[in-house]
Amino acid sequence: MTTTILVIEDDAAIRDMLCFSLRHSGFSCESVSDGEQGLKWLGEQQPDMILLDWMLPGIDGIEFIRRLRANEYLADIPVIMLTAKGESEDKVQGLSVGADDYVNKPFSPPELIARMKAVLRRCRPPETEENQQLEFVGLSLDTKSHRVSVDGQRLDLGPTEFRLLHFFMKNPERAYSRGQLLDHVWGDTVYIEERTVDVHIRRLRKALEPSGHENLVQTVRSVGYRFAAD
Question: What's the rounded Cα separation, in Å, for the pair 201 and 107?
């Protein structure tokens, strides 16, 4: 499977150069120009790594990492900061808020690629992980392989639908408002409208429909949604 890198960089020339180098090295590259766009992108998808400029308009790199690490579902994404700030105290600040590595500008693409591969190796999840498999009324969700199946037949879910189902399966038989689902699944540091929840609920139901499990995701009038067998 191709490793996807999200580049968050406001300089278009650097952004284009990074994506060219990454694709040439076999990575898949997505790019945005500021932190707010980055958070919105992460509300829909999850990359394998983020290359993050420090000096961004609006949400700077330090604040972006703080928000990322505060989100249960995004906290483990490795981040390499790219910056012209070269003082040792700047590096300490970047690493202390949760950056996995720190590369000074200007940098050589081969060195950056080598550093990325080292971080990706270091950040691989451990072989033993709690709650690797969740079961509910015939549904099986494996957090390690990121797969959902019914009686051995795999169901295809998008990243957000997977996170939503994961949360529901960990917390069945309880009603949650749209705001609560946003906080738990997307994280309270990601700013998304509540109606986004309805969109992904519909997608999740559609993905569960072939197996006959779409009715597990129940609408609770005047409240929100519940995951239950009855």
Answer: 43
Per residue in 114-162, pLDDT (tens digit) is 989 888 887 765 544 455 789 988 899 988 777 899 877 888 887 778 8
Over the range 8-43, which residues count as b (16 or more CB within 10 Å of their CB) and which as e? bbeeeebbeebbebbeebebebbbbbbbbebbebbb
Residue pointed to by tokens 């580049």: 7
Q: Which CATH topology does 4-122 take? A: Rossmann fold (3.40.50)
d(CA 196, CA 53): 28
- What is the torsional sign of CA 168, 164, 199, 211? negative
Q: How far apart are CA 29 and CA 12, in angstroms?
A: 14
> In angstroms, rounded to a whole number, what is the distance separating the alpha carbons of residues 119 and 133?
27
224-227 and 217-220 strand pairing: antiparallel
Q: Indicate the length of the chain as a whole number.
A: 230
Q: Is the pTM of this model over 0.85?
A: no
Question: Which positions of the chain have pLDDT values less than 50?
Answer: 127-129, 189
222: left (phi over 0), alpha (psi -120 to 50) or beta: left
Question: Is the fold of 4-122 the same as that of 133-227?
Answer: no
Where are the chain's structural domains?
A: 4-122, 133-227
Domain 133-227 has CATH 3.30.1360.120: no
Alpha-helical runs (H) found in the chain: 12-24, 35-42, 61-69, 88-96, 109-122, 159-170, 178-181, 195-208
